[in-house]
Amino acid sequence: MVGDHGTPETVESRECHKEIDKRADIRMTNITTLLIANRGEIARRIIRTCREQGIRTVAVYSEADAELPHVREADQSVCLGPAPARDSYLDIGKVIDAARATGAQAVHPGYGFLSENTGFAAACDEAGLIFIGPGANAIRVMGDKAAARQLMNENKVPVLPGFDQEGADDATLASAAERVGFPLLIKAVAGGGGKGMRVVESADRFDEALASARREAKGAFGDDRVLLERYLPTARHVEVQVFADQHGNAVHLFERDCSVQRRHQKIIEEAPAPGLDEALRERLGEAAVQAARAIDYVGAGTVEFLLAPDGEFFFMEMNTRLQVEHPVTEMITGEDLVAWQIAVAEGRALPKRQDQIQRHGAAMEVRLYAENPYQHFLPSSGTLQPLVWPEGVRVDAGFEAGDTVSDHYDPMIAKLICHGADREQARRRLVLGLENLMLGGIHHNSAFLHRVLSSEPFSQAELDTRLLEKHPDLLEPVSVPVPALAVAAAALVVQRPATGSDPWQALNGWRPLGRRQTLVPLKVLDENLIVILEDNQASVNGVPLPFQFHSDGGRFHLGIDGGTLVDNMTLSGRFVDQGERLWLFVAGQDYAVDLHPARESEHDAGHGDFTAPMSGTIVALHVNPGDRVAAGDAVITLEAMKMEHTLRAGDNGTVHGFNVGAGDSVSEGTLLVEFEVEQE
């Protein structure tokens, strides 16, 4: 085991033990007005609990978020400034001023933004505001991944072999990497949420990965320090929800499995973790509580572990805040964790002892993101229209129909959560919920989530953090034949009541040679088609296609009897009729069908291999004009929604020039690089 430790963090970590002395005289406070220093889904979640407890809420927002639901649902709201987070949600002075101006006694940071910012926690304390979270020292130690590793090691909580020397330069890190061994993980010391994190499989990839991790960490956290850890390719990500009060009580509320990830970011979470025996479950809970006690923790926290196939587990980090995935814990325990947070912040004892906390059934959650899973998960922005949330599912959403997802913040739209008597029932209910979700207007990951949840590996709980790497087919889109979509759309048009205002409706009964037929011109996935329906026979662009069709209550079912265009198949889903556009929703995927499309002139939309896949900022040029590059080489990197995206050469060729430079803002479709493919 490599164990190079820097003394500054060890000394600092021990300072946190002094924090309990400040709590010797605990004063009870009834919070009547609470400011929520966050936005979207988590702000609305906090507002719900505050309403139940009779607590007045204050929302803050940026100019970009002025029309979002959390702003109108709060009792009062304050605009912090322009869209960039540094000028609004991350401006500590503005948040403190808003709390003072509105008479708030307490501030809830939610997650992300300032939730794990020691300066913010300290500023709240100095301003006489209750910070709903742990003290600044606990945040500081656990926010510094190197210091946290050292403290856990001192307190007999197992940690992975690694290298966490303070202030190590690139050469020192490269040398240490050889001793740690490959594969290894580069992790931002001040990081979280998968940012500033890179898996490195071999030494020849280390320098590029290190530079990228440092840049991303610097941009996200203002700190480019990193540490190294041994990477376990088949481990599970299991975390434990802990709670502690100011009276010295500490408990856990069982564990969650968050192994299904991409880019080290969780996408599906569940509780309890499947396949754990009670002895292992108890050891995990005890280790998590020990980690919390090691820093005299107060409030809600999550201790994250890597669980090896042999049952050995290792401390990864502690998140000193409420987690995105807290609803699955709430659903298996029946507890309101935000209410617990408020009670602890008021100086009360924990609502329950460890032996009073019960576990019932299983719960599962998916994160619905504005992103395109089939284009490397590139973020998407736009207006959510249509949007109908499924019934029978807990939906924690930051947006409603007609709201706009901007490119300034994290792309999460909502969380969908289901509870069941057991894991399988929870899984089936969540699959059905995604099938009943109707969301259009942007790219999103609902169909991808549906495919993962429905897959054999996931349904059999064959979980580890590389699930998607082991099953790349889960990243492939489910292909629905365009002719089938066209027939379904045409059949729905035929069933519309005639209004007399649409000239195409007049075709709904024209009779060539005495037969009743209906002609519907439409456009599906950029294909212009003519569908003619006659009883149970359709023709698509003149090719016959037998079918059966039924619709009722916003749902449809199509059966195809097979033919030249499509094999035998069935297609079931939901639909939203917007007049000139019909939306079909199948297995989580949305399909926009334009009715009676106008002819469009052809144009050249090609710009080569290096067009900006989304709006963002250029952060690095990896080669120089005139350089010859090989397929797979990094050429240019841009940042969008706080994540870096590196464009690589698809073929051998020569970079003739760059149309942009580092720091430039670009819009989607901008030609970034002049590149000539090498001719064979």
Keywords for this entry:
D-amino Acid Aminotransferase, Chain A, domain 1, Biotin_lipoyl, Biotin_BS, single chain, 17 helices, 38 strands, ATP binding, Dna Ligase, domain 1, 8-stranded antiparallel β-sheet, disordered N terminus, globular, Rudment_hybrid_motif, 680 residues, Rossmann fold, 8-stranded antiparallel beta barrel, alpha+beta, ligase
CATH superfamily of the largest domain: ATP-grasp fold, B domain
Oligomer: single chain
Uncertain ranges: 1-24, 499-515, 599-608
CATH topological fold name of the largest domain: D-amino Acid Aminotransferase, Chain A, domain 1
CATH architecture term of the largest domain: 2-Layer Sandwich
Strand content: 25-35%
| Rounded radius of gyration (Å) | 27 Å
Kindly state the percentage of residues in helix. Answer: 25-40%
- Main sheet attributes: strand count, strand direction, barrel closure: 8 strands, antiparallel
Number of helical elements: 17
Mean pLDDT: 89
CATH class of the largest domain: Alpha Beta
The total of beta strands comes to 38
Secondary structure class reads: alpha+beta
Count of discrete domains: 5
How far apart are the first and last residues' alpha carbons, in Å?
49 Å
Subunit structure: Acetyl-CoA carboxylase is a heterohexamer of biotin carboxyl carrier protein, biotin carboxylase and the two subunits of carboxyl transferase in a 2:2 complex.
GO molecular function, one term: ATP binding
InterPro entries: ATP-grasp, BC-like_N, Biotin_BS, Biotin_carboxylase_complex, Biotin_carboxylation_dom, Biotin_COase_C, Biotin_lipoyl, CPAse_ATP-bd
Keywords: ATP-binding, Biotin, Ligase, Nucleotide-binding, Transit peptide
